[in-house]
Amino acid sequence: MAPEPRVCWLTEEYPPETGGTGLMAARICRGLAARGVPTRAVTRQTRPARQPEEWLDGVHVRRIKPAGRLKGAGWRALPAMIVFLVRLSALLVREARRYDVIVVSSMKIIPLAAVPLGRWLNKACVIRLESPFELIEPIAAESLGAMGSRAGGPAYRTLGALGALVGAGLARVLGALQRAILRRADCIVAISRDLESSLQQMCCPSARILRIPNATDLRRFLPVTEEEKVALRARLHLPSSCTLVLYAGRLSRAKGVLMLIEGWAELAAAHPDLHLAIVGSGKGSWDDCEAELAGRVRVLALGARVSLVGESDRVHEYMQASDIYVCPSDYEGFSLSIGEALACGLPAVVTSVGAAPEIIEHGVSGFLFPPKDLRAMIAALELCLAQRARWPQISRRARESAEPFDLDRVVDRYAALARELARAPGRAARPAASRARLRGSSSDTRARH
Fold this sequence. Notes:
- With 449 residues, the chain is an alpha/beta fold.
- It has 18 helices and 14 strands.
- Helices cover 45% and strands 15% of the residues.
- Helix 1 crosses helix 16, helix 2 (77-94) packs parallel to helix 3 (110-120) and helix 9 (257-270) packs parallel to helix 10 (290-299).
- The longest helix is centred in the middle third of the chain and has 31 residues, at 154-184.
């Protein structure tokens, strides 16, 4: 029997950071390790700093400096990115004998080093796209804006004069590099149909595109009885006799939480039994709006109708204690929280972005509304409330819609992908037919959407 492939997973974030990219990378890495697939994760250092090397749930984790947020930092991010790529490249070369397959989370900067090095070292390389904006914006709009800013020291003020022009040119160059890198990867994982379509429009070889969704732990996120729900609300210090609506995720402007609070004032006035619980933090986000959100709750006198829970490792319990899930995000790739809410059997009221239209049938397994539309959000929540009698049926359909994204099933597909890529004796021997067999394994997921 051939030995299991050794996987090196590269990601800009990893727990204890709580971003979706890092959480999903950790779930899959843990699952691979539990299946006997030796797995290491390489990520950026955190603030405050953790040990540069540690074992977490069977995964060997390496953390590389520099730490700190890069998105939205403009020119200040450039030296840090270069230093990180140099250190990452040195690590990949130095430890090349310890892994067989490279998997990269997101199409930001890591693939610029990982894919060329992978080809040079004869290692299979997989890029896992996290969001359509990775293809649309090679440099985030917030970073481009910062590049045109005159704030900072003299050097930055000088750059600021021509920053917007230079930044736009840099974005075009980076976009061209990213497209070239994508075409040279051994496999590109698209987490949604939308991303798969975007890749095809970019002329990426179809045989190299594999659609594998984000994963949900169906054994942790599952429906509970009414009696269990009452007990959970008491334990979580949530109102017992109310219709509880939950938002769980980053407290950032892009997540639409400020719009949610503006709409909640109207909804709360019309429905005295409604209560909103918001679980999450804005810490570390470039568009952190946690303080502003708390301020709006005070100004709108919603303190008795809104619970600001903060960050929690008991999100599954908050979902199980709730009646409705709401996610007004401006954009998503494949929202982790939506999959978890559906797994808990919650009627989900979410924006029709990313994978949401694939996994939610409007009025059947949840409710959809266009992003950045306050009136549409309120109307969708009102529609959900008006169909309370149908919530048991919607709950069943929601749970069914989450089943294709079971964590075990998704991890099995990554394990199969790693074995297939590692089995080939060289890059040239990885034929399109081999990738087509891998793509064929996704037909059960496609058929359900």
